[in-house]
C-alpha cells in the first residue's frame, strides 16, 4: 500500500510539474516577442474572473487595456493558454480591421457545430469565402427603399409602445415610472418580429410575448452567460450550446417556416426580410451557399438576436441619459418640433434628425451592448512599423468600451455629451464603433438607427422624462453605473434596472 501511495504521489507530481512547465511556456508567448502582458493566471490566462462569471467581459478587457502604457498600440493577453493581441491604437485598428481585411476576414468566435445551420451558417458566424457571398446577397434587405417599406411597421410598434405607457399606473406625482430596458425590449421584439419574421406581434400584450421571451432567454438568463463565454472564449466547445439554445431556436424556426408557408401559399408581399429570403430561395443556387433548409431561418434569427439586445439596451441608456439631462431632452424635443410637428414621418425627415442620432450614438459609445469584436489572422502578418508578427491563427481583439472611452480620443470620456467632438479627426471611425468596424460591421446599422430614432421620437413627443437619483447612481457620475452591473450578466446594464418616470406633455 505504501508503494502504491508513493507511486501515485510521484506520478501526480510529475503530471503537475509537466503541466506547470507546459503552461509557463505557453504563457510566455508574448514576452518572448517583446509584447507587454499583464500577469496571467496559470489556468485561465487573463480572463479568470470573466470565465468564472465574476466580472463582465467589458470590465475584464478594461483592466487589460489599462495595464498597458498610455501610448502602447497593443497589449498581449491570454484566453486560457491561447495568445490574443488586444489593439489599442486607432491607426492600427483601422489597418487590421479595414485595410488588411483580406487577411483578417474571419472572426475567432462562432459556432463549430456544422449540423446546427441556424447558428453555424448565420451571417454573424459564417466564414470566408461564404460570408462574402452571403453578405452580398443580404445587403439589399437594408437598402433605403426596403427601410421605407419597413417604416410603417416600426411606427405601428411605437404607437403600441405609447399605448402601453398610457396604461401604466399613475404615481403620486402624476407620472408613470417604468424600467426602460424592458420597455425597449418589448418595442424591439415587436419591430424585429415584424421585419425579420413577417409576423404581427404585440409584446406589450402579456399574452403575445413569444419573441420577447425568446430574446431574453438568449441574452439575459444565467445560461446566456455560459453561452457568451463559450462563444467568445472557447469556440471549439460551441457544440455544447445546442441544449442551451433549443427553446429559442425552435421558436424562431417554427415562426419563420409558418410565415414562409403563408407567404408562398397566399402570395403576400411586405417588402421585409422574409420576402427577400423567399426570392433567394426561388432563385438560382450557388454551391457556396444554398438558400434552403435551416439556412433561411438562420438569417432571420441571427439578425433578430443582434438587434434585440443592442436596440433595447441603447434605447434604455438613451432614455436614462435624457431623463438625467433635461437640457439635452429639450434640444431633442425642439428638433422634433422643427422637423416633424404636423407632418407625416418619412425616411427623408428621419435623416434630418441629426441630434436624435447623436443621442443614440453617444449612448452606444458609453455602453456598447457587445463589448468585443475580433478577427483571426489567416496568414502571418507583420504589424507595420514594428518587428512583431501576428502568426497565422492568432486572434486580435478590439475592446469597444475601452477604445470608445479612451481619454486619448475623447475629453471627459465618461460624460454623456451628444454634441461632443472626438479629440481625433476621424469622427466617423469613433461614432461607428458600437456597430463594429470594417466590412464585417453590422449590416443593419441604418435599420437599427431608424427604429431606435422612431422609439425616442415617439416617447419624447408625448412625455417628459425624469429620473430620481440615489447615492449609488448620480446624474453627473456615470461611473456609478459600473458599480451597479450584474456580476452574472455578461452584457452591460444596471443591476437594479433604470426606472424612468414619464410625465405627459401638456
From TrEMBL:
Molecular function terms, GO-annotated: heme binding; iron ion binding; monooxygenase activity; oxidoreductase activity, acting on paired donors, with incorporation or reduction of molecular oxygen
Main subcellular location: endoplasmic reticulum
Pfam family, one: p450
TM segment ranges: 6-23, 222-245
Domain of life according to the entry: Eukaryota
Membrane topology: Peripheral membrane protein
Names of required cofactors: heme
Gene3D superfamilies, per database record: Cytochrome P450
InterPro entries assigned to the protein according to its UniProt record, in alphabetical order: Cyt_P450 (IPR001128), Cyt_P450_CS (IPR017972), Cyt_P450_E_grp-I (IPR002401), Cyt_P450_sf (IPR036396), Insect_CytP450_Detox (IPR050476)
Keywords assigned: Endoplasmic reticulum, Heme, Iron, Membrane, Metal-binding, Microsome, Monooxygenase, Oxidoreductase, Transmembrane, Transmembrane helix
Annotated compartments: Endoplasmic reticulum membrane; Microsome membrane
GO CC terms, sorted: endoplasmic reticulum membrane
Record-listed heme binding positions: 442
Similarity-based family: Belongs to the cytochrome P450 family.
PANTHER family recorded: CYTOCHROME P450, CYTOCHROME P450 6G1-RELATED
Protein name: Cytochrome P450 6k1
Species whose genome carries this gene: Ooceraea biroi (Clonal raider ant)
Source lineage: Eukaryota, Metazoa, Ecdysozoa, Arthropoda, Hexapoda
